[in-house]
Amino acid sequence: MTAESVRWGILATGGIAAAFTAALVDLPDAEVVAVASRSQASAEAFAERFGIERAYGEWGALAEDADIDVVYVATPHSAHRAAAGLCLEAGRNVLCEKAFTLNAREAEELVALARGRGSFLMEAMWMYCNPLVRRLKALVDDGAVGEVRHVQADFGLAGHLLPEARDGVLPPTHRLRDPLQGGGSLLDLGVYPVSFAHLLLGEPSDVTARAVLSEEGVDLQTGALLSWESGALASVHCSIVGGTATSASITGSQGRIDIPHGFFFPDRFVLHRDGRDPEEFAADPADGPRNTLRHEAAEVMRALRAGERESPLVPLDGTLAVMRTLDAIRDRIGVRYPGEDPAPAGGPLSPVRAVTPA
Predict the structure, then answer these.
(1) Taking Cα atoms as reference points, which of 248, 99, 244 lies closest to residue 157?
(2) What is the structure's pLDDT at 340?
(3) Phi-psi category of residue 231: left, alpha or beta, with phi > 0 → left and psi -120 to 50 → alpha
(4) What is the phi/psi pair of residue 355, to 5°?
């Protein structure tokens, strides 16, 4: 790492890896020097696409590349523990996609490993780094709507419209339906509404949830009610069987904030204060496209240059808290992935499993 550039390695070559690499290319102080895949051909094709110097056909070679300052792990979340752990063991700094891991136990292992090695580790929760989301968070923290009473957020997509769908149904081998890949709507999409609630209220004291499960045992859609000792509630929903508005709202004792669409990368939100006219806050065009991952990358590079081992925007304790909440929701709906031992922490409520063939 120099004053001019931070050298990145990319682990995996899927769609999110491509989107993140494209964001890095647009940053003058970022340099992508290597990429790895389990397939040499895939790594070489990705390297040619983005003009990357080195392409590795196995993860270990990337992890051992001492010319890399930080590795971006973009595998399916079922492989995050193995991929990020390999890089941390080799002394690399890591930015790991969300959901951070399959469960809280795996997340705790990665955090302990990073802290023990003195390496930087961050969950790729780009929502937390978004300038307009940060503005919203500051307003709430400053009491713009008074004491937060309720948070609502949803994220659903129409899986039957994805290119991989066959006869209007995602095949069981698709990553969103495959238990071996940590499939289901919760870890892929629900992590956003849950993380949004955590951003504003912290870790809930109680969780209830219901879901519709596939024949494979992953959640097709899930609804959860989170509660806090303060009396605050959060209603969160995720789905891979229907597209939602991806809206969010924050209701407080003195007002409300509405995000009408794309709450995790908004172009605007509206603040309603009791007794005042609504105020609209819009994204600054100077910040670039609202769907960019550049703010997340910039935060990693800022932290590395400052010698920080974690980001204050995406703290590791917050990531662990989100993983505990996701575990609790999965316990309530009866979703467990192959090889999980022990099972996710549950709590006092009995799981409710609603199985619907799809």
Answers:
(1) 244
(2) 85
(3) left
(4) -95, 125
For the cut 50, the answer to whether the pLDDT of residue 347 exceeds it is no
- Nearest residue to 77 (alpha-carbon basis) of 175, 174, 155: 175
Beta-bridged to residue 249, according to DSSP, are 152, 258
Task: Determine the 3-state secondary structure of 149 from DSSP.
Answer: strand
Pairing relationship of beta strands 70-73 and 6-11 according to DSSP bridges: parallel
- What is the per-residue pLDDT across 276-321, written as a single tens digit (0 to 9) for each? 999 999 999 988 777 789 999 999 999 999 999 999 999 999 999 9
Cα-Cα-Cα-Cα dihedral of 213, 217, 223, 226, to 10°? Answer: 160
- Beta pairing, strands 70-73 & 206-213: unpaired
Phi/psi-derived region of residue 258, left when phi > 0, alpha when psi is between -120 and 50, beta in every other case = beta
The CA-based angle 125-219-12, given to 5 degrees, is 45
- Asked if the bond preceding 99 is cis, omega within 30° of 0, the reply is yes
235: part of which helix (H) or strand (E)? strand 233-239
177 contacts 321 by C-beta, under 8 angstroms = no
Q: Is 222 exposed, middle or buried (0-12, 13-18, 19+ CB in 10 A)?
A: buried
At 294, list the tokens: 């550049």
- Helix runs in 14-71, H state only: 15-25, 40-50, 59-63
Half-sphere exposure of 356 (CA within 13 A, CB side): 12
Q: In the structure encoding, which two tokens stand for residue 355, read together?
A: 């199985």
What is the residue-wise DSSP string for 98-167?
Answer: SS-SSSHHHHHHHHHHHHHHT--EEE--HHHH-HHHHHHHHHHHTTTTSSEEEEEEEEE-BGGGSTT-BT
* Helices 15-25/40-50 angle, 10° precision: 30
Helix (H) or strand (E) holding 320: helix 316-333
